[in-house]
Amino acid sequence: MKDMDEEQSNSRRSFIKTGLITGAIAAGGLGIMEVASQDTSKKKGDTVKLLSPDGKIVEVDSSEINPQIPDSLISTHNVREGVPGKKFVMVIDLAKCKNAGRCKSACSKMHYLPETRSYIKINKMQDSDKASPYWMPTPCFHCDNPPCVKVCPVGATFKLTDGIVGIDNDRCIGCRFCMVACPYSARVFNWDTEYQINVVRFKEIKEHAACSTHVTGTVEKCDFCPTKAAKNELPDCVQACPNGVFYFGDENEDVVSNGDETVRLSQLLKDKSGYRFLEDLGTKPRVYYLPPVDRQFPFKDVEPGTT
Q1: How far is the C-alpha of 110 from the C-alpha of 114, rounded, in Å?
Q2: Hey, which residues does 47 pair with through a beta bridge?
Q3: Residue 288 class from Cβ within 10 Å (0-12 exposed, 13-18 middle, 19+ buried)?
Q4: For residue range 182-193, what is the model confidence (pLDDT) as tens digits?
Q5: Is residue 208 over pLDDT 50?
Q6: Number of helices (H) and strands (E), helices first, in the chain?
Q7: Which element (helix H / strand E) includes 57?
């Protein structure tokens, strides 16, 4: 493993010279999301346009941005196919959210993130100064028409057939085009220079490599916990929520569950006026919201984890 780390580090250091990745790029993670069917060899002379740290568009030789991954670490699972027959979907009931914060802590634990980081944000919302505020959790929306996929110059972010939008952190070059393109601010940049991926997580990724890995200088986000979704299990954020805010399931089966109750997706959205956030942008998100009816009033602006 040490040799592979050194190989990835050397490749990324050579790329730093182009000025396209900021921070110390150390291969602290062991990513394996390179798909065997993809040709990673690049001819010199072919250029790719990228965003430099100072916001300028520059061109670099494509041979410098896609280091070869050892065959021993190439996943045998074609991660860009997804789970056959599935179309994963999430529903978030804003009327139930009390900012308990369990979804965030469970997400961090599942993805071996520091406690201070999470792929889920919980936003305090208020429609007007006379309306009661409410809490709005925002994961990745796994859009069916994802702008992040369209702008990635190296194919590092992709849409699976089961609805999940994945990231290949070994292919990602840290240009952050996807972060700019995402209207939901669902993506985060990994600046951590010392974070090491857990060995258990490494084994888990090899089973279903649609999960993001931790590679310094690359982009990460919510991935719908695909290792669990593939086994018909609920994501950790859904299981951890004490208020039943999150529902998850398969749109093809028209069924979602929050762990306590299992309901028909179409009926739930119809009965409770479900909607999709910023749907007018044409992104076709796979996350639905139920309106924040019967809000708490007066509003309790509490710290996460105290409710």
Answers
A1: 11
A2: 61
A3: buried
A4: 999 999 998 875
A5: no
A6: 8, 13
A7: strand 57-61
